[in-house]
Amino acid sequence: MAVSYDVIVIGGGHNGLVNAAYLARAGKKVLVLERRHVLGGAAVTEEVFPGFKFSVCSYVVSLLRPEIIRDLDLPRHGLEILPLDGTFTPMPNGDYLWRVNDHGKTHREIARHSKLDAEAYDEFGKAMQAMCRFVKPILSMVPPDPATLNPKDLMKLLFIGRRFQGMTSEDKYNQVQLMTMSAIDFLDQWFETDVLKATMSASGIIGTFLGVRSPGTAYVLLHHYMGEIDGAFRSWGFARGGTGAISNAIADAAREAGAEIRTEAGIAKIIVKDGKAKGVVLANGDEVYANIISSSVDPRRTFISFIESGNLPNEFLDEVRRYKFRGSSGKVNLALDALPNFKCMPGRGAHLRGAISISPSVEYMEKAYDDAKYGNYSRHPYIDMVIPTLTDPSVAPPGKHIMSCFVQYAPFKLRPGLNWDDQKQAFGDNVINTIAEYAPNIKDIILHRQVLTPLDLEREFGLTEGNIFQGELSLEQLFFLRPVPGWAQYRTPIKNLYMCGSATHPGGGIMGANGRLAALEILKDYRGAA
Q1: How many alpha carbons lie under 13 Å from residue 50 in its C-beta half-sphere?
Q2: What is the pLDDT of residues 53-96, one digit of tens each?
Q3: How many domains would you assign to the chain?
């Protein structure tokens, strides 16, 4: 007789694991099914080359919700976050911008470029903190549906309205601007230094097929600004052992609570009978049944790949097909024999311990987007680099280093005549050549390299069109519109089928809020059905 579960969670990424952990802690019999041989989804550590353990996709952490760390007691399960100190931006003229977590040092560094900007930077930080305080509770809220007259939804809208009303006039204006403006137009109101605006605007384009001058990117900037470690906004860090250590800590908490987790257990189909989800068919043909199915994979895979036609309303499927992925980023992971040597600041130093950003000017950033608009990878891309071995030597052999390079733009859809299988190595070469303009020794110290295109992200990690957030963080795909209008509360038109991945509110990043909120809604429905 087939074993039956209370809940089957599809996908062992960090959101699926958070979902499973909360459900198991509530006493439910939970099974997690992960297609790959390793847990974590995009938050994964893999020994790609002997001795070198890469955070293959996601590489820094900041958005992981404090309540999840606390509820699941993740430090006891091995989670340790090491602070990432600052952002270093080398410039072609031999100068640089180096912002660190030390306020005094950053103030002096910005003043070296512009005394006005140094003063404005303090005011900007205060304004962004006010915006973060306004948005932060929304990250922990099940989105209301404004189209219904449900009293609970109306109360949530009233709560948001009252919070907005309670802000100062200046903060209200800033909030409206953040939701509508481009990152650069917003930053232009505060700063005059080109390299400062370019580097700060980079947070507004990550995971979107938009440029720094595209409306809506100011909100994405805020989304990333909300990173916090121990309550401090704008704090970023590494997980000791790579980002896979985060997923493993959550998985350990889930197992301790009683969840069963299987790897190499891909899904072929979700079983639907009489409008209800009943179980899943695995890729090997096995059937597993459960009262609830919770999918942490994206809407296209869940509703179009896994569910047979005829089980969903056509209007809903039309909305799913309209949902935008438009992957725009790639990744190059390097195993190094030594440290890169930057012309503008030669030798070892604290500047290598934080993020290293190839974002020398606003024009540079916008031209990178111009290439992508016409179906090419950026000839001069924005690159965000980190060298985790300077903070966590455990991920490489003694004396060796890892450098993680997040690259934008690498559009999933290349122009006619080009394909990613043919362009992959040329893309990797272009990234190395770009870094070499600032750190000429880079080519001499590379031992191994791993190149990931958006097509690789789709094939290997199940990220449709290579989008790292399971869908763009654009305004029409946020809050009560994510993933589709009317279905933003983790439920779906199929009874007992739920969504819990990054394609739901509050979006992408190693946050875990999606998995937690979905679990709370599942438990609420469970109690109601009891």
Answers
A1: 0
A2: 999 998 877 678 889 999 999 999 999 988 888 899 999 999 99
A3: 2
